[in-house]
Every structure is written in C-alpha cells, then in structure tokens.
Amino acid sequence: MIAGIAVGYLLHRWKIRFIHGLILTLIWLLLFLLGLEIGANESVVSQFPKFGFQAFLLATGGTLGSVLAAWLLWLAVKNKSTEE
Amino acid sequence: MKGSLIILSFFATGLLLGIFRWLPPHFLNQNVSFYVLCGLMFSVGISIGNDPSSIRQFRNINPRILFLPLMTIVGTLLGVFAVSFCIKNRSIADCLAVGSGFGYYSLSSILITQYKGVELGTIALLSNIMREVMTLLFAPWMVKYFGKLAPISAGGATTMDTTFPIIVRNSGKDYAIVSIYQGFVVDFTVPFLVTFFCSL
C-alpha cells in the first residue's frame, strides 16, 4: 500500500480515473475467493448445521455492539466539530 | 443496496463453487487471494496518493477518534454478553472468548481450540468469519445509519487487511488511517483477551 501511495503521489498530475473501477473489481474478486475458501473448508461446512446458529448469534451480538459503540463515538465527534 | 447485492452474489457464487468443488483444487493452494489483496492495497494506495486533499485531511482527524478501538472492544463484549443469555449450553466466559476474536478467525479459533477444545474453536471460527462477512456486506448500510466509524468498529481486527478496501470505499479515504490504526490495536489485543476469557 505504501508503494501505491508513492506511485499515486508521483502520478498526481495525471488523474487516474480507472483506479476506482479497478478497486471495485478487485473487491468483488476478493469476496469471490473468500467464499471459495470458506466453501472448500470441510470443517466449516460440515459443522455449520450444528454450530451455525450459535456462531451467528455471537457474531451478530459482537457486530451490533461495536456498531452502536462506534455510533456513540461518532455522535460525540460530530457534535464537537459542529460546535467549533 | 445494489453494491451489497453484487458483493453478496460474488461471495455466494464462490461459496457454492467451493462447497461443490466445481473448480480444480490446486486453484486454492496458490494463495491467489493474498496476491489479490496485495493488488487491492496497492490500488487503494494509488487512489490515496493520487488525491492530494486526502493526505492533508489526515491532520484534521479529531483526537477523540483515538478511542475507537476501545469502543470496539467494549461494544463487542457488551453485545456478546447480552447475546450469551440466549445461548444456554455455553458459559458467559466462553461466549466472550469467541467474541474477543473480533473477526480475526484464524488466530482466535486456533487459540480457543487449544484452551477449550475443538467444539468452541469451531464456533469461534464460524462466528468470526461471519463477523467479517457481515462487515463486508453491510458496510454501506452501517455508514448510512451509524456514521462513518461504524464499519471500522464492526471490522474489528480485520480493518487493516481484508475489510480495509471496503471501509475506505464506504467511509472515505480520510478514514483510511483510522482503519489501519484500529486494525493494528485490536489485532494486538486478540491473543490477550482470548486467553484471558479462556482462563476464567
């Protein structure tokens, strides 16, 4: 990434328009590969019916909790910047 | 919404291909995803370096954002604690150990397998993969309703690698440095918190 920043900085006179399309395509490719890896992992697939629901509950609890905590911080940060 | 659906369909296609082995197996052994991730980081780097204003904006970050990793950890543990009452056959400490993976499924599942056995280790693996996938899929929605810090917090320990590009795309380039900082700090706490809750 640091190499990318350097390259991007050196090229900042030329607007690189295609880079956003490239990023999006690579994100899609990465997710496809992530799915592929998880799907091909036998222990994940075979244990899923047994523990999937518990894992889902824990993942949801953790994600929601952190999102709400981040929201509180976001509100605190935003209020401060509107006061100034 | 459309973006999430496209992402979901790519993920689901990969999942099905993997489950039914419609691809030659050697395709997986070559660390293709690692090289794709490197390419992605390089591209995000170019887009940050290419935009002079994004470098200047690094300095305008509110110092309170330094508390984000703490909010992530406390929020996650409280959320998991609340959920643990719905799961009857697991102790609260077990649930908190799983939650302390913060999406870092490889490390947390290995640690938990060592301390608590294969069963809880598998739950940690599944649960933390799900957390990563949730972050990837719902990041646009989180930004819309809970602000630009929400997907960074949801990404937990993964915000400097796998979920980084999605966060930069949805929260904006100004938050790239916040994402890396948060990923680094939370990553570091995973082994300590996981072993701590396993020892309770």
Keywords for this structure?
heterodimer; A: 84 residues; mainly alpha; 2 domains; flat; B: 200 residues; 10 helices; 0% strand
Short summary of the structure?
The complex is a heterodimer of chains A (84) and B (200). With 84 residues, chain A is mostly helical.
Explain what you see.
The complex is a heterodimer of chains A (84) and B (200). By secondary structure, chain A is mainly α. Chain A folds into 2 domains: 1-40; 50-84. Chain A is built from 3 helices and no strands. Chain A is flat and about 55 Å long. The relative contact order of chain A is 0.04. Chain B has 200 residues and is mostly helical. Chain B has 10 helices and no strands. In chain B, α1 (2-20) packs antiparallel against α7 (118-146). The model of chain B has no long low-confidence stretch (mean pLDDT 81). Chains A and B meet through α1, α2 and α3 of A and α1, α2, α4, α5 and α7 of B.
The biggest sheet of chain A amounts to:
none
Number of folding domains of chain A? Answer: 2
Query: Helix tally of chain B?
Result: 10
- Computed CA radius of gyration of chain A, to the nearest angstrom: 21 Å
Question: Structural class per helix/strand content of chain B?
Answer: mainly alpha
Element order of chain B: H for helix, E for strand: HHHHHHHHHH
User: What is the terminal separation of chain B in angstroms?
Assistant: 42 Å
Give the overall shape of chain B, derived from the CA principal axes.
globular
* Uncertain regions spanning at least 5 consecutive residues of chain A: none
Distance between the termini of chain A: 34 Å
Largest interface: A-B, 69 and 91 residues
Mean pLDDT of chain B: 81
Tell me what portion of residues of chain A adopts beta-strand conformation.
Answer: under 5%
Low-confidence runs of chain B: none
Oligomeric state, counting identical vs distinct chains: heterodimer
Radius of gyration of chain B (Å): 18 Å
